[in-house]
Amino acid sequence: MRRIFKSVLCAIILFAILGFAFQMRATTFWLPHWQGDQSHYISLAMKLEKLGFSYFNLRGINVGKIMLGKDNEVKIVYPVLNKDITSTGEILEGLHAVGIHYYDQPFFHKPPGFPYVLLFSHKLFAIDNLPYTVIASDIGRFLLRSRPVSLLKVQFWATLVPLAFGLGTILCTFLLGKTLFSYRTGLYASFMMAIHPVAIMTSQKIWADDMVAFFVILSVLTFILAIKRKSGWISLAAGISCGVAVLAKQTGGYLLIAVGIFSVLAYVSGISDTKSLLVTIFNKYFIMFSIGVFLVSGFWFIKIYMIYGDPLWQPTATQSDLSSVDVTGWFKVLRSRPPGWILYPIGIFYLCPLFIPAYCSLRDFISETWKLVKKKSYDYRFILLWVVILVFYFMLKGGHEHRRMLPVYPALAVLSGFYLDKFRMYSGKFSRYTGNRFVREFIILTLFTLCTLWSAPIGITASLTNKLLIQIPF
Q: Which of 59, 115, 307, 414 has its CA 20 to 30 A from that of 42?
């Protein structure tokens, strides 16, 4: 009976966290969604529907407009095909006008997973045969407060996608914390993801970041299940999830590297000769995971290789090159920020101080890894999570945007949640002031309240003001 009550209470709290997260993000239905890469993803989705995968680029796309209101204060836009689909088109012409040319490629350099999801969402949720419409102008505080249903219908199909993936990531974060540690750890971690400014902002942009984060964390969760059940087939399913993350953004493939490193570490104590080394490297978990990744995303790399001669091809323009010709100032702003190896460790925790306890788990990561090397019994949980975090960190260390590290925020949240729960349970042994359980609960509740008051407004403000970058703390 007690277990049932605990499960029901946990479900109620989790539902409340998801509801709170949705409430902070619900303005996305009325915010503009055409700026920057958002217009590219929407245009690519339209082109995939009209012409198919062979024409996956930004050429030949113009912009249709609908003006609403007495003074035309609300602008609705949508991509339309030019009669000549090989022409430059208005989308690329707009980029060329501000000095950005690397998007003008015969085949788009970003994978098609996110545009395909937008396509399916449009087919399911767009009303009255509307084209791929979104709001392109600031509709004002009054309209945002009144939230007219007519404008919600215009872009519901598009805004639903990142919002759903954002909420799904919060749910998967809870499941990860619960699976590895406890219900309470999962709830703590999911709440941190609900209030983190970067997660709030990205789930209100037509970007692929939340899709990547969702499938990365789902893959980690499935891989843990494979370890628990010692199943290569479940590891295959984890690889399939990672493959979908790769199709959203190629950075999702960093998880494959992390799983490979972890798989080798897990068997390192059994290495004694060349044969055992090969068995360790090519263990069933990593092999099946890799097969899953390439079953889903392999066609993309084959296509890129056939066109550009390099399966990992990317445009060669550097930020220094772009900042010298970019008239918008975007690349100059990025270049003025610290690189990721400085920005990420400071920014992630500055934006949401509740993530700070994750640092404590570095000690566990080091000690458990040392036990593994010494062929002693070890706890794989800290090793796996930190290997994932560190792989993404070192692969993305040259970046300048907080959102690049979003896929590993859930892992950091779980580690922080574990230590916050550890404080709740054991702090009473070290101080008579925290000996009372209710005092410790009050301290935890106070910390979460204060952090919410600090973190949530940063993300909400960035969204309401249509910012593409959170320039805090740098």
A: 307
The DSSP code sequence of 229-259 is HT-HHHHHHHHHHHHHHHHH-GGGGHHHHHH
Contact 61, 68 (CB under 8 A): no
Contact between residue 290 and residue 223 where contact means Cβ atoms under 8 Å apart: no
Kindly state the average pLDDT of the residues 362-371.
94
Q: Give per-residue pLDDT as tens, 326-335.
A: 677 788 888 8
Instruction: Please give the biggest Cα pair distance in the chain.
Output: 79
Give the span between the Cα atoms of 169 and 237, in whole angstroms: 18
Q: Considering only CA atoms, which of 4, 455, 461, 464 is closest in space to residue 191?
A: 455
Q: Partners of 81 in the beta sheet?
A: 61
Give the burial class of 47: count Cβ atoms within 10 A of its Cβ; 0-12 exposed, 13-18 middle, 19 or more buried.
buried
DSSP 338: P
How many other β-carbons are positioned within 10 Å of the β-carbon of residue 230? 10
Q: Burial-class residue 5 by CB neighbours within 10 Å (0-12, 13-18, 19+).
A: exposed
Task: Give the closest residue to 224 by CA, choosing from 375, 369, 371, 388.
Answer: 388
Phi, psi of 68 (to 5 degrees): -125, 155
Between 99 and 114, the more confident residue is 114
For residue 444, pLDDT beyond 70: yes
- Fill in the amino acid letter for 197: P
464 in Cβ contact with 144 (< 8 Å): yes
Query: 119 near 49, Cβ under 8 Å?
Result: yes
Quote the mean pLDDT of the chain: 91
Helix or strand (DSSP H, E) at 10: helix 2-25
Between 271 and 259, the more confident residue is 259
Peptide bond into 473 cis (omega under 30): yes
Of 30-39, 252-261, 314-323, 327-336, the poorest mean pLDDT is in: 314-323
Q: What confidence category does residue 155 fall into, taking pLDDT thresholds of 50, 70 and 90? A: very high
Would you mind telling me the total number of residues written for the chain in this entry?
474
Sign (positive or negative) of CA dihedral 282, 283, 285, 291: positive
Torsion of CA 189, 38, 298, 252, to 10 degrees: -20
Q: What is the mean pLDDT of residues 127-147?
A: 82
Q: Mean pLDDT over residues 56-63, rounded?
A: 96
**CA–CA gap between residue 61 and residue 84 (Å, rounded):** 9
Taking alpha carbons only, the member of 329, 376, 262 closest to residue 471 is 329
Chain-centroid distance of CA 125 in Å reads 23
